[in-house]
Specification:
mainly alpha; flat; hydrolase; 6-hairpin_glycosidase_sf
Length: 67
């Protein structure tokens, strides 16, 4: 999870960015249930189209969405 305010102040190509990137970790003292839920939903939904073409990858995505 990054700093949205700082990210939205920078209007240049990602390749040209040389500013410090502040990173925050989600834990018991700094909850981030919304970001964690978004990530879990993205992993779970990404597992669906891979189910027929790559079951191992699909299973990995689904497993990681639950942890």
């Amino acid at each position: 999870v990054g700093d949205g305010n700082a990210d939205h102040q920078c209007w240049e190509r990602p390749e040209d960015m040389d500013t410090a990137r502040t990173v925050y970790q989600i834990d018991a003292s700094s909850p981030g249930s919304e970001a964690a839920a978004d990530a879990a939903a993205a992993l779970a939904s990404a597992s669906i189209p891979f189910h027929k073409v790559d079951r191992n990858y699909s299973s990995l995505l689904l497993k990681n969405s639950k942890t």
